[in-house]
Amino acid sequence: MNDLPLPRLHLLGDAALLCDLPAPATLAQQQRIWALAEHARQWPGVGETLPGMNNLTLTFDPTAIDLDTLTARVLEAWPKLSAGAVEGRLVEIPVAYGGEHGPDLADVAAHTGFTPAEVVRRHTAAEYVVYLLGFLPGFSFMGGLPPELATPRRAEPRLAVPARSVGIGGEQTGIYPLVSPGGWQLIGRTPLELFDPAAEPPTLLRPGDRVRFVAESVQT
Amino acid sequence: MIAIRRPGVLASVQDLGRHGHRQLGICPGGALDVLALTLANRLVGNADREAGLELTMGGCELQFETDTRIALAGDDFGASLDGVPIWPCWSVPVAAGQTLRLAGANAAGTKKTGVRSWLAVAGGIDVPPVLGSRSTDLKAGFGGLEGRPLRKGDRLATGVSTLDAAQRERRPFGIRGPDWGPAEDDGAIALRVLPGPEFELFTLAAREQLWGERWRITPQSNRMGSRLEGAELKRKRGGDMLSSGVIPGTIQVPPSGQPIILMGDAQTTGGYPRIGVVIRADLWKLAQAPLNGRLRLVQVDQPQALAAWAGQQRYLSQVAQGLAAAGWPNAA
Prior knowledge:
The complex is a heterodimer.
Chain A: E1 8-11, E2 16-20, H1 27-40, E3 46-51, E4 55-60, H2 67-77, E5 90-98, H3 105-112, H4 116-125, E6 128-133, E7 140-143, E8 158-161, E9 165-169, E10 172-175, E11 180-182, E12 185-189, E13 210-219
Parallel strand pairs in A: 5-13
Antiparallel strand pairs in A: 1-2, 2-4, 3-4, 5-12, 6-7, 6-13, 8-11, 9-10, 9-12
Chain B: E1 2-6, E2 10-14, H1 34-43, E3 52-56, E4 58-64, E5 68-74, E6 80-81, E7 84-85, E8 90-94, E9 99-104, E10 116-121, E11 155-156, H2 165-169, E12 173-174, E13 189-195, H3 204-212, E14 215-217, E15 225-229, E16 244-245, E17 250-252, E18 260-262, E19 269-270, E20 274-278, H4 283-288, E21 294-299, H5 302-325
Parallel strand pairs in B: 13-21
Antiparallel strand pairs in B: 1-4, 1-11, 2-3, 3-10, 4-9, 5-8, 5-10, 6-7, 6-9, 8-12, 13-20, 14-15, 14-21, 15-18, 16-19, 17-18, 17-20
Helix pairs in contact in B: 1-5
């Protein structure tokens, strides 16, 4: 693995460093990003680590670690990281598909050319990986949607997507933790809380976790 | 207890922010002007971490049910305590039953310069900490008082103050407020900015416009971000960006070409190119910059940004030393 591309480093303001990897985004690169995050959290002067898609942002205290030192540490650590260092958990997410819980299941079926039942079968057959959390507390950006289920976002975003709705937006699938505006196609809903500020940890999913959707019911 | 008689446009409980949870999608939030809240806290003998109130556009009325001491920082909106004016960065004794009033933004005779005020009360606002902070996350609906803006009729408890009775009743005193720097000829507020990771993605013209424009702060601005209006910042080429971390101060440019400067309640990751990032030492100026006011963005490098930060820390040390020399408790 000597030809492993190095991250391009760039300041994000005076106290954060962006480590950006060359395209394309792959699971192997993302696994190294999680591993770098785990590592960097132990370094004195580093505050938070925030994985993006194919990148990692580190906040740091410039009075505790200067930029040159931090840069050197990242570049030194990167080639030694093991992609398997972060072992995610397998999380099963029960979903009530279709009907009032998934009002756009029929639209996804029409777009993909499958029956609603076949959309559900394919959505539940895949295993997904949480690449990162962002947008809302507990909102995960997942990879692994079967390409044939990709469906464009709705032309008119909803002003209030119900909490715990499972949706498809372009080539991604995800779950809305909270009521929020959103343009994804809603195919179902889970009874699980994705975000509970009183819980430890407060989110159901974390970067690196693997996810399976389990059909609790299907209304077509 | 503090009774909210009128909350104004938006009043919420805020402290220094909820840190350490960005990778779970949880924004730092907190007082948009941390410097103001810190000054106000120190003026009433509180530790820096205590929660205060962030008040927006004045127009509020709060009644204190017990003897206490308060300090206001940021814009004062013609603040008065039972009709007696009080000024920003002053520490003022309050007797049970007294009412603090901030005039509305359109009240005649008040000079309107800013947009927000931060109020500290001896002992701090006592709401249960959630994920290590008392700040209200208005978008996700947790923290602060029931995760929501304050409403008429709300009553807020305060924590145990470090002040003894003599200190609490001491006559009002004030400190020098933070330095805005040299005024611009046209009244614009200058914010120092480091070029962002996608700076080079923009056309040469756009990069020059970023520094040359007098950006107007539109009224569509809020705790998530300040939306600016001015020249259209064009990219050399289109194309999607992958989700990537953003922090308060990040200047992102959506397809409209009109930049948004993200603030404390912004989401943790974004997908728009980041043309620049406002330095930490100037974020407080953005938090206080008035709607429809003008901003000038000034390019600096990291050493300059760190020098500005060090200068702000020096000012805070001077405040702490001055207060200690005057026999004021230092709970920081």
